[in-house]
Amino acid sequence: MYGYSGKILHVDLTTRKTWVESKPEEWYKIYIGGVSMASRLCWENIEVGCDPLSPGNPICIANGMFAGTPVPVGGKYGLASKSPLTGFIGDSLSSSWFTIALKRAGWDGIVIHGASDDWVYVFIDDDRVEFRDASQLLGLGTFQTEETIREELGDDQVRSATIGPAGEKLVRVASVTNDSRQAGRTGHGAVWGSKKLKALSVRGTHGVSVADPDALLQLSYDITQAAQGPHTQKYRILGTMANVLNLNRLGILPTRNYQQGVFEYAELISGEYLHEHYHVKTIACAQCPIACEQMSQVKDGPYAGAMTGIDYEPLYAVGSNCGVKDLRAAIKTIDICDRGGMDAMSTGVTISWAMETFERGIFTKEDFKCAKYPEGFEPNFGNAEAVVTLAEMIRDREGIGDLLAEGSKRASAQVDAERGTETWKWAMHIKGLETPGYDARGLKTFALGLAVGTRGACHNRTAAYDPDIKGEVDRFSVDETRGKLAKSTEEYAAVYDTLPLCKFIRRCFTGKADRAGAWPAIAKLINATTGWDFDYDAVDLIGERAFTIKKAFNIREGWTREDDHLPWRWMHEPMKEGPSAGYVVSEEELEYMKDLYYEAKGWTKDGLIPKEKLIALGMDDVAEEIGV
Amino acid sequence: MPKVVVEFYGTARQVTGQKEVTIELKEGGTFRDVVRALAARYPKLVGDVIQPGGEELQMPNMFNVNARRVVHDLDTQPQDGDRILLMFVTAGG
After folding, report:
1. How confident is the model at residue A527 (pLDDT cuts 50, 70, 90)?
2. What is the interface pTM, i.e. ipTM, of the complex?
3. Which fold has domain A235-430?
4. Which of A238, A313, A579 lies at the smallest CB-CB distance from B10?
5. Across all residues in chain A, what is the average pLDDT?
């Protein structure tokens, strides 16, 4: 087999045993890699119904066929477990050198079972697996953990995926970090922490074989050249931070816990402002010719020295959504999240829930006592120091941080149970995962895409904002096209997440990002890598299969139609101002769109998957378990 | 004669160094005339924001009128007083 080793490594932390599983080529043709293969490995290896923080929840890693080859932006891997935030599939992507090391070590995937009694890190040295004491790493941040392991092993080519203090403390919004990139969402860090796994380190020394090296090199060269032109210009100069002003102008920039869609200080937290005042360097993941990460540094004030890569999603969450206009505080908060090993999106949105709960008089100053502020503090929207402090408190589970570390769904449920309140009405999450940086009241196709998302509120697993923002449909209304659009856009995104390829390359194949522009070119890349005979239709099926295995996982874990919901606020509180003023996504609109979506997917009205549908996708064993 | 305001975001703002510009159109002037006027006034927009030739926007840049609707046909006419957002939206991050 070209492009793959055909081998999955299993590691049991309980017994400290390892074994190798071989998969047939047909299995690879269905599940491919990335989030699809990782989710399939999770399907195969989980104890169904288990607590996500129990030994029965496996950590599943899946590489892609393009890792370690010249294919631009192909250095990504998928990570899947049952999410401690949602109780459903938690699938994330990360990128860069760790991916390539794993490929060179000869593994298409890793499954980590059980749980260790003592803190360990696992060192995969090509074929050899070593369980190493991690007690000296406890308390270290993610970046520092990577460096310390490199020093301990005496090899700067060792790459590690690590957790920070947040993961050690089972913070449910904790992430996994490698090479300063995060598998950020759905709480993987807590799963690793529950197993007492501080890091997974890899040294890979083998080559990567592909079917047609000359063809692959030429294809990769052409794409790399295109990636230097206007198709990626928006990512290279300002990065995703360019969204701040655009979305603000459209009235959909989440502001003060989604109470508003227009932030009066948007200019001060914009990509343009960041670029002028705090940007120090633009960096790229391994195997990427684009380079979108805007490294930014605080040079003065109380947060001087804070430095990390800034993207739009973390920034809106700890910036406008918390009413914070000081970019220095936002950079510091994201720095705390990155080093502490936390998803800055979920962290920021959980903090904004706490700020609103305080402003409504349910929380008081007393609730915010901590070592830094023994008398407590008042976390009004706009209090930048409060946001910084709360991020630290969540990381350390200190004071009210212990509650917020559970994420907004659980935190609101606990407060409401204890105090007889209804704070759940402003807890902004779907299935337990906090909402992304687009207010869906002004993007109704996107609202559907988020509601039906298998991992909860995720902007990366659906591209349904695209038809709304590009004006292919009226973003403020609902019509019969939305079910097919949500299906089409989620499966489009899933192709990239499964190969995996970074979506930022999508215009560089032919200049057009649609299926007609990209799928034939991607088929050529697949065929030159593997020797397979993929065509447009085969590429298109990748996305449908990826989404189907994740949905099947959720169904087996107890998903029902009612789980495809939206936050109460988006359904009942109209936007107050700006171009999206007056809009909600009504119950009637959402249920209508869900009907359309399930029909477009070929599912039942209850959102279940017919057996014949699964069999047609080559998932016979899945059909036996959950097909109807 | 109709006047429109073009608001610059992202690359367009970086290239022009301005947040917005007012453009006066002839009677019956179209969005394509707005593109032409921008290309003439800010030649550096041609390339990353406006296609060579100065007649079409470079994908993925687009015109959004008053933050309400996207312009799909450059040969249609803006209304007097329209605010035209020259923007793109990125995904991910």
Report:
1. very high
2. 0.94
3. 1.10.569
4. A238
5. 97
Is some CB atom of chain A closer than 8 A to the CB atom of B70?
yes
Contact state of B10 with A470 under an 8 Å Cβ cutoff: no
CATH for B3-87 (3.40.109.10, 3.30.360.10, 3.10.20.30, 3.40.50.2000) = 3.10.20.30
Identify any residues that bridge with A130 across adjacent strands, giving them in sequence order.
Answer: A123
Backbone CA torsion sign across A86, A91, A93, A97? positive
B92 to chain A, any CB pair closer than 8 A? The answer is yes
CB < 8 Å to B68, chain A: 579
Q: What is chain A's alpha carbon radius of gyration, rounded to the nearest angstrom?
A: 23
pLDDT given at position B90: 66
Whether the predicted pLDDT of A289 surpasses 80 = yes
Tokens of A79: 């990570």
Closest CB to B92 among A233, A503, A579: A503
CA distance A297 to A281: 9
Distances (CA, A) of A298 to A179, A327, A333, A356, A563: 21, 9, 11, 28, 41
pLDDT at A293 over 90: no
Q: Which two tokens stand for residue A560?
A: 């029902």
pLDDT (tens digit per residue) in A144-186: 999 999 999 999 999 999 999 999 999 999 999 999 999 999 9
User: DSSP character for A607?
Assistant: S
Closest by CA position to A559, among listed A191, A173, A89: A89
For residue B93, pLDDT over 70 is answered with no
Q: At what angle do helices A482-498 and A536-556 cross, to 10 degrees?
A: 100
| Residue B92 predicted with pLDDT over 70 | no
Q: What is the CATH number of domain A7-203?
A: 3.60.9.10
Q: How far apart are CA A4 and CA A9, in angstroms?
A: 13
The ranges assigned to domains in chain B are 3-87
